[in-house]
């Protein structure tokens, strides 16, 4: 059995032309991929978690973002090498299949289901809150029963988060009709939200008081590290770019550019925003604040900009959900095409050339989760799932360098195994900052995946059929 569960796909097979009914349409260039990455990264992290991170680390949250960004950078270099070498849909699932074997590939694919689906659901809840806040500014209010998941608002009877459900359904429709249409919407929204962030920096920087940065680390390095594990969520998304490999016009050149440039741009924005926030407002004042980016502007008397920021948050979260759901469907598409998941998940629409059945299935699941389940604690599972994926991609790039040193690589991760080793160390350290309850839930999720693999996937694998 051990040989069968660790069987590997050959890279030459992965690069072989897929049948027309299983092929995706190539529509994306380097700029589109960069915008896709920014669309995924800038959202809940910058508009919500900056305040929570400030409470945990004080002004030292600036260092927290840098630490989390470095962990992502080291992993991103490994992603860039694999994405340019094996430009096939599936991201780290596909890369692991070629190096570490089928069982581990399945587990990481199952792990990505947790990351992407839960991220879409969690962000949809945050989107709903900002949207309702925007409506209230015009004197409009939804019935309380339709504003939140059951039992989440004390003193009110709630049944269903309607805005969260509807926004995911709209995004699902966009993705189902084609990546070309989706990328246009994403690119426009990314331009708007980056402009909003730059507006915040330009206006708020004039009100910075350096005295608010003293003490810089009121809770010491423990607070900085704890905040780094939390704000890591703010960087999740750049790995979804790798899922677009099969729909990229020139993947060997464009994928590394998209991955690294989007991560670099977003890290700079996070550092500037967190520095300005804590410079304008003492970090203790972010306690209980749901709109931390708006608070410094309100304190500075720039309420007109605060309103624009709220609109930018809505747009920002929309692009995050779009890219995360996109990544989810492409990973499941690849697993289905390999026989590890039911075949209907890799059926491609004849007109739109999208995995439409997978898109609608996971869109419905994500929408219902966001509408019905409180996700405060479960959101931590997104972090542990992503960190695990980053560790595996870093191991995989080392293994492939050893086993296939002469394989043509359009982009080479520098200083292997040092850089991937640093990714493993950084991500492993951040995982250890997460609580025991998160570990237990993650273990349960992985156990369910192992059962599915041995009960269904192992026997139906395309590699098993080819024996």
Automatic annotation (TrEMBL):
Subcellular location field: Membrane
Membrane-traversing stretches: 28-49, 61-82, 103-127, 158-176, 188-208, 223-245, 257-284, 304-327, 358-375, 381-402, 414-432, 438-456
Keyword Cytoplasm set for record: no
Recorded topology in the membrane: Multi-pass membrane protein
Superkingdom in the source lineage: Bacteria
Keyword terms, alphabetized: Membrane, Transmembrane, Transmembrane helix, Transport
KW Membrane (keyword) present: yes
A Gene Ontology cellular-component term: membrane
GO MF terms held by the record: amino acid transmembrane transporter activity
Main subcellular localisation: membrane
Descriptive protein name: Amino acid permease
Source species of the chain: Domibacillus antri
């Amino acid at each position: 059995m051990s040989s069968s569960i660790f069987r590997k796909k050959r890279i030459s097979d992965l690069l072989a032309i897929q049948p027309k009914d299983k092929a995706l349409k190539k529509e994306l260039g380097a700029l589109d991929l960069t915008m896709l990455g920014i669309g995924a990264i800038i959202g809940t992290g910058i508009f919500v978690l900056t305040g929570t991170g400030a409470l945990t680390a004080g002004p030292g949250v600036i260092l927290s973002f840098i630490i989390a960004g470095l962990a992502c950078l080291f992993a991103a270099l490994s992603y860039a090498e694999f994405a340019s070498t094996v430009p096939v849909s599936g991201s780290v699932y596909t890369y692991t299949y070629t190096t570490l074997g089928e069982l581990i590939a399945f587990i990481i694919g199952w792990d990505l289901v947790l990351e992407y689906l839960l991220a879409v659901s969690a962000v949809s809840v945050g989107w709903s809150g900002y949207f309702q806040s925007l409506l209230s500014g015009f004197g409009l209010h939804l019935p309380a029963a339709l504003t939140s998941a059951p039992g989440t608002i004390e003193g009110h009877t709630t049944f269903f988060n309607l805005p969260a459900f509807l926004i995911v359904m709209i995004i699902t429709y966009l993705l189902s009709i084609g990546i070309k249409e989706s990328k246009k919407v994403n690119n426009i929204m990314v331009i708007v939200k980056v402009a909003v962030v730059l507006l915040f920096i330009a206006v708020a920087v004039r009100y910075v008081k350096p005295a608010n940065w003293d003490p810089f680390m009121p809770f010491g390095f423990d607070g900085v590290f704890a905040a780094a594990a939390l704000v890591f969520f703010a960087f999740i998304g750049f790995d979804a770019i790798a899922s677009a490999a099969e729909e990229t016009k020139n993947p060997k050149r464009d994928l590394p550019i998209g991955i690294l440039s989007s991560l670099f741009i977003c890290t700079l924005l996070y550092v500037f925003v967190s520095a300005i926030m804590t410079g304008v407002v003492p970090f203790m004042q972010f306690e209980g604040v749901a709109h931390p980016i708006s608070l410094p502007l309100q304190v500075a008397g720039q309420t007109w900009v605060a309103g624009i920021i709220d609109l930018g948050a809505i747009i920002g979260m929309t692009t995050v959900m779009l890219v995360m759901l996109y990544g989810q469907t492409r990973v499941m598409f690849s697993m289905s095409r390999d026989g590890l998941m039911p075949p209907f998940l890799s059926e491609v629409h004849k007109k739109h050339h999208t995995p439409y059945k997978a898109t609608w299935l996971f869109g419905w699941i994500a929408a219902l989760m966001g509408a019905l389940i409180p996700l405060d604690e479960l959101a931590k599972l997104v972090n542990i799932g992503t960190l695990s994926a980053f560790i595996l991609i870093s191991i995989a790039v080392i293994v492939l360098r050893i086993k296939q040193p002469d394989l043509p690589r359009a982009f080479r991760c520098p200083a292997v195994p040092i850089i991937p080793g640093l990714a493993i160390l950084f991500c492993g350290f951040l995982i250890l900052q997460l609580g025991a309850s998160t570990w237990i839930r993650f273990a349960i999720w992985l156990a369910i995946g192992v059962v599915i693999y041995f009960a269904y996937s192992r026997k139906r694998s395309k590699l098993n059929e080819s024996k």
